[in-house]
Design brief:
This protein is an all-alpha fold. It has two domains: about 25-100, no CATH class; about 100-315, MetI-like (MetI-like fold), CATH 1.10.3720.10. The chain is about 75% helix and about 0% strand. It is built from 14 helices and no strands. It is elongated and about 80 Å long. The chain starts with a helix and ends in a 10-residue tail after the last helix. GO terms for molecular function: transmembrane transporter activity. It is a multi-pass membrane protein. It is found in: Cell membrane. Keywords: Amino-acid transport, Cell membrane, Membrane, Transmembrane, Transmembrane helix, Transport.
Length: about 325
Protein backbone atom coordinates (compact mmCIF):
# COMPACT_ATOMS: atom_id res chain seq x y z
CA UNK A 1 0.00 0.00 0.00
CA UNK A 2 1.44 3.36 -1.03
CA UNK A 3 1.96 6.38 1.17
CA UNK A 4 -0.77 9.07 1.19
CA UNK A 5 1.49 11.31 -0.90
CA UNK A 6 2.12 8.67 -3.56
CA UNK A 7 -1.56 7.75 -3.60
CA UNK A 8 -2.53 11.39 -4.13
CA UNK A 9 0.03 11.72 -6.91
CA UNK A 10 -1.35 8.57 -8.55
CA UNK A 11 -4.87 9.97 -8.45
CA UNK A 12 -3.60 13.25 -9.92
CA UNK A 13 -1.84 11.59 -12.85
CA UNK A 14 -4.81 9.33 -13.60
CA UNK A 15 -7.08 12.37 -13.46
CA UNK A 16 -4.90 14.21 -15.95
CA UNK A 17 -4.96 11.26 -18.35
CA UNK A 18 -8.74 11.01 -18.00
CA UNK A 19 -9.02 14.61 -19.14
CA UNK A 20 -7.76 13.52 -22.55
CA UNK A 21 -9.53 10.21 -23.01
CA UNK A 22 -12.94 10.99 -21.51
CA UNK A 23 -14.02 13.07 -24.51
CA UNK A 24 -14.83 10.56 -27.28
CA UNK A 25 -17.12 12.88 -29.22
CA UNK A 26 -14.57 15.70 -29.18
CA UNK A 27 -11.77 13.34 -30.20
CA UNK A 28 -13.89 11.91 -33.02
CA UNK A 29 -14.81 15.41 -34.24
CA UNK A 30 -11.18 16.53 -34.26
CA UNK A 31 -10.06 13.30 -35.98
CA UNK A 32 -12.66 13.69 -38.76
CA UNK A 33 -11.79 17.38 -39.15
CA UNK A 34 -8.06 16.75 -39.56
CA UNK A 35 -8.58 13.75 -41.83
CA UNK A 36 -10.65 15.93 -44.16
CA UNK A 37 -8.11 18.77 -44.01
CA UNK A 38 -5.09 16.59 -44.72
CA UNK A 39 -6.79 14.81 -47.63
CA UNK A 40 -8.01 18.16 -49.00
CA UNK A 41 -4.59 19.80 -48.78
CA UNK A 42 -2.88 16.75 -50.26
CA UNK A 43 -5.26 16.73 -53.22
CA UNK A 44 -5.10 20.48 -53.89
CA UNK A 45 -1.47 21.33 -53.06
CA UNK A 46 0.61 18.19 -53.52
CA UNK A 47 -1.33 16.20 -56.11
CA UNK A 48 -2.72 19.23 -58.00
CA UNK A 49 -6.24 17.83 -58.05
CA UNK A 50 -5.37 14.21 -58.85
CA UNK A 51 -8.08 12.76 -56.58
CA UNK A 52 -10.76 15.30 -57.44
CA UNK A 53 -10.68 18.60 -59.28
CA UNK A 54 -9.40 21.48 -57.16
CA UNK A 55 -12.08 23.60 -55.47
CA UNK A 56 -14.55 20.75 -55.94
CA UNK A 57 -16.04 19.29 -52.77
CA UNK A 58 -15.56 15.64 -51.87
CA UNK A 59 -19.22 15.48 -50.85
CA UNK A 60 -22.15 15.72 -53.32
CA UNK A 61 -24.91 18.17 -52.44
CA UNK A 62 -27.78 16.36 -54.19
CA UNK A 63 -28.55 13.90 -51.34
CA UNK A 64 -28.71 16.74 -48.79
CA UNK A 65 -30.92 18.82 -51.08
CA UNK A 66 -33.25 15.85 -51.58
CA UNK A 67 -33.54 15.18 -47.84
CA UNK A 68 -34.12 18.88 -47.14
CA UNK A 69 -36.86 19.04 -49.77
CA UNK A 70 -38.58 15.91 -48.46
CA UNK A 71 -38.46 17.05 -44.85
CA UNK A 72 -39.59 20.54 -45.81
CA UNK A 73 -42.66 19.12 -47.55
CA UNK A 74 -43.36 16.91 -44.55
CA UNK A 75 -43.07 19.86 -42.16
CA UNK A 76 -45.51 21.87 -44.28
CA UNK A 77 -48.03 19.03 -44.34
CA UNK A 78 -47.87 18.68 -40.54
CA UNK A 79 -48.73 22.31 -40.00
CA UNK A 80 -47.82 24.00 -36.68
CA UNK A 81 -46.66 20.72 -35.09
CA UNK A 82 -44.15 20.17 -37.88
CA UNK A 83 -41.66 22.80 -36.72
CA UNK A 84 -39.14 20.23 -35.35
CA UNK A 85 -39.09 18.57 -38.78
CA UNK A 86 -38.64 22.02 -40.30
CA UNK A 87 -35.55 22.58 -38.14
CA UNK A 88 -34.05 19.33 -39.37
CA UNK A 89 -34.88 20.30 -42.95
CA UNK A 90 -33.13 23.64 -42.35
CA UNK A 91 -30.06 21.80 -41.13
CA UNK A 92 -29.86 19.75 -44.33
CA UNK A 93 -30.42 22.93 -46.37
CA UNK A 94 -27.47 24.46 -44.52
CA UNK A 95 -25.30 21.43 -45.39
CA UNK A 96 -26.33 21.54 -49.04
CA UNK A 97 -25.56 25.27 -49.26
CA UNK A 98 -22.23 25.07 -47.40
CA UNK A 99 -20.58 21.97 -48.84
CA UNK A 100 -19.55 23.52 -52.21
CA UNK A 101 -17.42 26.14 -50.42
CA UNK A 102 -15.48 23.77 -48.15
CA UNK A 103 -12.47 23.44 -50.52
CA UNK A 104 -11.89 27.20 -50.63
CA UNK A 105 -12.29 27.52 -46.87
CA UNK A 106 -9.80 24.68 -46.36
CA UNK A 107 -7.18 26.87 -48.06
CA UNK A 108 -8.08 29.65 -45.64
CA UNK A 109 -7.68 27.26 -42.71
CA UNK A 110 -4.14 26.52 -43.94
CA UNK A 111 -3.25 30.22 -43.74
CA UNK A 112 -4.90 30.56 -40.32
CA UNK A 113 -2.90 27.64 -38.93
CA UNK A 114 0.36 28.99 -40.33
CA UNK A 115 -0.28 32.44 -38.86
CA UNK A 116 -1.08 30.97 -35.46
CA UNK A 117 1.77 28.46 -35.25
CA UNK A 118 4.45 30.83 -36.54
CA UNK A 119 3.20 33.69 -34.37
CA UNK A 120 3.23 31.76 -31.10
CA UNK A 121 6.41 29.77 -31.86
CA UNK A 122 8.52 32.76 -32.91
CA UNK A 123 7.06 34.84 -30.09
CA UNK A 124 8.24 32.24 -27.58
CA UNK A 125 11.89 32.97 -28.40
CA UNK A 126 11.32 36.63 -27.54
CA UNK A 127 9.12 35.90 -24.53
CA UNK A 128 11.63 33.78 -22.61
CA UNK A 129 14.39 36.44 -22.47
CA UNK A 130 11.76 39.08 -21.63
CA UNK A 131 10.38 37.06 -18.72
CA UNK A 132 13.83 36.17 -17.39
CA UNK A 133 14.82 39.86 -17.57
CA UNK A 134 11.69 40.84 -15.63
CA UNK A 135 12.38 38.33 -12.85
CA UNK A 136 16.18 38.10 -12.63
CA UNK A 137 17.52 41.11 -14.55
CA UNK A 138 18.87 44.41 -13.32
CA UNK A 139 16.87 47.61 -13.22
CA UNK A 140 17.79 48.60 -16.78
CA UNK A 141 16.87 45.25 -18.36
CA UNK A 142 13.70 45.08 -16.30
CA UNK A 143 12.68 48.52 -17.55
CA UNK A 144 13.31 47.56 -21.18
CA UNK A 145 11.38 44.29 -20.82
CA UNK A 146 8.52 46.06 -19.03
CA UNK A 147 8.39 48.78 -21.69
CA UNK A 148 8.16 46.20 -24.48
CA UNK A 149 5.46 44.24 -22.68
CA UNK A 150 3.32 47.25 -21.88
CA UNK A 151 3.69 48.69 -25.38
CA UNK A 152 2.42 45.57 -27.16
CA UNK A 153 -0.16 44.63 -24.53
CA UNK A 154 -1.41 48.20 -24.25
CA UNK A 155 -2.06 48.85 -27.95
CA UNK A 156 -4.60 47.04 -30.18
CA UNK A 157 -3.26 44.23 -32.34
CA UNK A 158 -5.12 45.70 -35.32
CA UNK A 159 -3.27 49.00 -34.86
CA UNK A 160 0.03 47.12 -34.73
CA UNK A 161 -0.85 45.35 -37.98
CA UNK A 162 -1.68 48.64 -39.70
CA UNK A 163 1.53 50.32 -38.51
CA UNK A 164 3.74 47.46 -39.67
CA UNK A 165 1.93 47.08 -42.99
CA UNK A 166 1.39 50.70 -44.00
CA UNK A 167 3.91 52.76 -42.04
CA UNK A 168 7.10 50.68 -42.26
CA UNK A 169 9.15 49.40 -45.23
CA UNK A 170 8.52 45.78 -44.20
CA UNK A 171 6.06 45.17 -47.01
CA UNK A 172 8.45 46.38 -49.72
CA UNK A 173 11.40 44.49 -48.22
CA UNK A 174 9.55 41.18 -47.94
CA UNK A 175 8.06 41.55 -51.43
CA UNK A 176 11.57 41.54 -52.92
CA UNK A 177 12.58 38.28 -51.23
CA UNK A 178 12.82 35.26 -53.55
CA UNK A 179 9.95 32.73 -53.60
CA UNK A 180 7.62 34.99 -51.59
CA UNK A 181 4.11 34.62 -53.01
CA UNK A 182 4.90 31.51 -55.08
CA UNK A 183 3.67 27.97 -54.50
CA UNK A 184 3.29 27.19 -50.81
CA UNK A 185 4.97 30.46 -49.80
CA UNK A 186 2.39 33.17 -48.94
CA UNK A 187 2.64 36.76 -50.15
CA UNK A 188 4.21 39.64 -48.25
CA UNK A 189 1.08 40.64 -46.29
CA UNK A 190 1.08 37.24 -44.64
CA UNK A 191 4.64 37.66 -43.37
CA UNK A 192 3.92 41.14 -42.05
CA UNK A 193 1.03 39.60 -40.12
CA UNK A 194 3.33 36.88 -38.76
CA UNK A 195 5.75 39.54 -37.49
CA UNK A 196 2.89 41.45 -35.84
CA UNK A 197 1.52 38.31 -34.19
CA UNK A 198 5.02 37.31 -33.07
CA UNK A 199 5.69 40.68 -31.41
CA UNK A 200 2.25 40.83 -29.81
CA UNK A 201 2.22 37.22 -28.65
CA UNK A 202 5.71 37.57 -27.15
CA UNK A 203 4.41 40.26 -24.78
CA UNK A 204 1.58 38.07 -23.52
CA UNK A 205 3.68 34.92 -23.35
CA UNK A 206 6.34 36.74 -21.36
CA UNK A 207 3.76 37.55 -18.69
CA UNK A 208 2.64 33.91 -18.51
CA UNK A 209 6.24 32.77 -18.18
CA UNK A 210 7.12 35.52 -15.69
CA UNK A 211 4.26 34.42 -13.46
CA UNK A 212 5.40 30.82 -13.81
CA UNK A 213 9.00 31.69 -12.91
CA UNK A 214 7.79 33.50 -9.80
CA UNK A 215 6.02 30.27 -8.83
CA UNK A 216 9.34 28.39 -8.66
CA UNK A 217 10.72 28.57 -5.10
CA UNK A 218 13.71 30.91 -4.75
CA UNK A 219 15.62 28.10 -3.08
CA UNK A 220 15.84 26.27 -6.40
CA UNK A 221 18.18 28.89 -7.85
CA UNK A 222 20.09 29.12 -4.57
CA UNK A 223 20.62 25.37 -4.61
CA UNK A 224 21.80 25.53 -8.22
CA UNK A 225 24.35 28.18 -7.31
CA UNK A 226 25.46 26.09 -4.31
CA UNK A 227 26.44 23.15 -6.54
CA UNK A 228 28.56 25.39 -8.77
CA UNK A 229 26.20 26.52 -11.51
CA UNK A 230 26.33 30.12 -12.65
CA UNK A 231 23.21 32.24 -12.34
CA UNK A 232 22.50 31.90 -16.07
CA UNK A 233 23.02 28.11 -15.99
CA UNK A 234 20.87 27.83 -12.87
CA UNK A 235 18.05 29.67 -14.57
CA UNK A 236 18.46 27.65 -17.77
CA UNK A 237 18.81 24.16 -16.28
CA UNK A 238 16.86 24.39 -13.00
CA UNK A 239 14.35 27.24 -12.95
CA UNK A 240 13.11 27.35 -16.57
CA UNK A 241 12.35 23.60 -16.90
CA UNK A 242 10.06 23.91 -13.88
CA UNK A 243 8.61 27.30 -14.72
CA UNK A 244 7.74 26.45 -18.32
CA UNK A 245 5.62 23.56 -17.07
CA UNK A 246 3.62 25.98 -14.92
CA UNK A 247 3.11 28.22 -17.97
CA UNK A 248 1.40 25.60 -20.14
CA UNK A 249 -2.20 26.58 -19.16
CA UNK A 250 -1.40 30.18 -20.08
CA UNK A 251 0.03 29.04 -23.40
CA UNK A 252 -3.21 27.16 -24.06
CA UNK A 253 -5.11 30.42 -23.72
CA UNK A 254 -2.64 32.28 -25.93
CA UNK A 255 -2.90 29.62 -28.64
CA UNK A 256 -6.70 29.84 -28.60
CA UNK A 257 -6.56 33.65 -28.69
CA UNK A 258 -4.20 33.64 -31.67
CA UNK A 259 -6.41 31.27 -33.62
CA UNK A 260 -9.28 33.74 -33.30
CA UNK A 261 -7.18 36.91 -33.58
CA UNK A 262 -5.74 35.62 -36.85
CA UNK A 263 -8.94 36.91 -38.47
CA UNK A 264 -7.56 40.45 -37.98
CA UNK A 265 -4.98 39.69 -40.67
CA UNK A 266 -7.81 39.96 -43.20
CA UNK A 267 -7.65 43.76 -42.73
CA UNK A 268 -4.24 43.80 -44.44
CA UNK A 269 -5.43 41.48 -47.25
CA UNK A 270 -4.17 38.16 -45.85
CA UNK A 271 -6.42 35.48 -47.32
CA UNK A 272 -6.94 33.44 -44.18
CA UNK A 273 -10.19 31.76 -43.17
CA UNK A 274 -12.18 34.89 -42.32
CA UNK A 275 -11.06 36.78 -45.43
CA UNK A 276 -11.95 33.90 -47.75
CA UNK A 277 -15.33 33.48 -46.04
CA UNK A 278 -16.11 37.18 -46.38
CA UNK A 279 -15.04 37.22 -50.04
CA UNK A 280 -17.22 34.23 -50.93
CA UNK A 281 -20.18 35.60 -48.98
CA UNK A 282 -19.88 38.95 -50.80
CA UNK A 283 -20.12 37.12 -54.13
CA UNK A 284 -22.87 34.63 -53.23
CA UNK A 285 -24.82 36.60 -50.57
CA UNK A 286 -24.89 33.45 -48.43
CA UNK A 287 -23.64 35.27 -45.36
CA UNK A 288 -25.45 33.16 -42.77
CA UNK A 289 -24.40 29.76 -44.11
CA UNK A 290 -20.80 30.76 -44.76
CA UNK A 291 -20.12 32.52 -41.48
CA UNK A 292 -21.75 29.71 -39.50
CA UNK A 293 -19.52 27.30 -41.41
CA UNK A 294 -16.46 29.45 -40.70
CA UNK A 295 -17.41 29.55 -37.02
CA UNK A 296 -17.56 25.75 -36.96
CA UNK A 297 -14.11 25.54 -38.56
CA UNK A 298 -12.70 27.97 -35.98
CA UNK A 299 -14.32 25.86 -33.25
CA UNK A 300 -12.67 22.72 -34.63
CA UNK A 301 -9.29 24.50 -34.61
CA UNK A 302 -9.80 25.63 -31.01
CA UNK A 303 -10.78 22.11 -29.91
CA UNK A 304 -7.69 20.76 -31.65
CA UNK A 305 -5.47 23.30 -29.88
CA UNK A 306 -7.02 22.54 -26.50
CA UNK A 307 -6.55 18.80 -26.91
CA UNK A 308 -2.97 19.31 -28.10
CA UNK A 309 -2.07 21.43 -25.09
CA UNK A 310 -3.72 18.95 -22.71
CA UNK A 311 -1.60 16.23 -24.28
CA UNK A 312 1.57 18.32 -23.95
CA UNK A 313 0.77 19.16 -20.32
CA UNK A 314 0.25 15.49 -19.56
CA UNK A 315 3.42 14.37 -21.33
CA UNK A 316 5.74 16.84 -19.61
CA UNK A 317 4.14 16.55 -16.16
CA UNK A 318 6.45 15.53 -13.31
CA UNK A 319 4.72 13.81 -10.35
CA UNK A 320 4.55 16.26 -7.45
CA UNK A 321 5.47 19.32 -9.54
CA UNK A 322 2.56 21.68 -10.02
CA UNK A 323 -0.05 18.92 -10.24
CA UNK A 324 -3.62 19.33 -9.10
CA UNK A 325 -6.44 16.83 -8.81
CA UNK A 326 -9.25 17.05 -11.33
Amino acid sequence: MGTPESTTTGRTIRGRAAGLTDQPLTLLTVAVFWTWLVVRWTNDFLLDGALIERNTSFFPTAPFESVASTLGSLASSLGPVGFPVGWVAGFFEFLAASIPYLPQLATGVWATILLTVLGIALGFFIAVPLSVARVYGGSATRSVALGYTELFRGTPLLAQLFVLYFATPLTAIIRELPTVGTGFIPAQAFWVAVIAFMLNSAAYQSEYIRSALNSVPEGQLTAARAIGLSKVDGIRHVVLPQGLRYAIPGWSNELVYLIKYSSLASFITVRELFERTDAIASETYRYTELFVLAGLLYLALVLSASLLMEYVEDRVAIPGLGTTSR
